[in-house]
Every structure is written in structure tokens, then in C-alpha cells.
Amino acid sequence: MLKLHANVYAAPATTVAGDPVTLRGHALPTLRSEAGGPPAFLAALPMTFEAMQSRLMELPRCDCEPDGFFLVTGREEGVFWRLNGHMHEYDGQMHRVELNGECPAAALDAVLQTMGWPEAKLVFELVKEGVTLAEQDFRKWAESRVDFSA
């Protein structure tokens, strides 16, 4: 089960390796702009708001609201899961999608497909941690158990 809270963006045209950070017990490489700050998320996702919303509504147990909020739920191995999302558009194009919740990897993949993945390369900005990760590093982070005892 994945646990996540991230903004999903189209990968910027240029990023460079940033300083690694340790999150949930993993040393993960980050992405930054060539100028040294956070990446500039200027590229649009390859779907319009309406097209993405239409594709989301085809997912089982998905509810979409006109303002771009959506909820996908399910049950796996007796465990209820939910993934909340909020679509953000700018100038008629999808700018980013905020995702928050816990879900199996297959459910995340289904939602990412509504954004044009896997053909579209995506990056993931962790909301709480304030870092940007490539997909494989995001998945490693999301798959990790959160240890609250430390």
C-alpha cells in the first residue's frame, strides 16, 4: 500500500540532480533547477481538464466533482483505501494534480494514466517535505512505511 501526498507535474524540460535527502529511511536524490532552486513547473500535462476528468470517471469507484476534486476508493486484502485528488489547470491546460491518501500501486497507476502516463514523463513534489523526486524515487518513498516511533 502506498502512502502519499504529492503534486504531480509534467517533467520540466531541464532539471539537475539536487542534494539527496533521507525520507522514511531512504536516501533519495532530489531534482532542482539549473539555477539551484526548485524546478520551474512550466510544462503542461498532455491532457485537458475535461479529458482527464472524463478518463477519471471511467475508473471504478471514482467520484469527480466539477471543480476538479476527485476521490477513488477500494478495498484490497480486507483493507479500505482512498486516494483524493485535485486537478489544477492554468490557461486551458492541466498544470498539476495534487494527490493525497493511501492506495495500491495499481490504483495510483490508473490515476496517473488519466494524466497521460506512462508516455508523459512526470515528477512528484512532496507537499510536506518540499522536495521534487523522479518517479522511481517517489515510488520508493511512497512504498516505505512511516515510522512514528523515532
TrEMBL record:
Highest rank taxon of the organism: Bacteria
The protein, known as: Uncharacterized protein
Species this chain originates from: Botrimarina colliarenosi
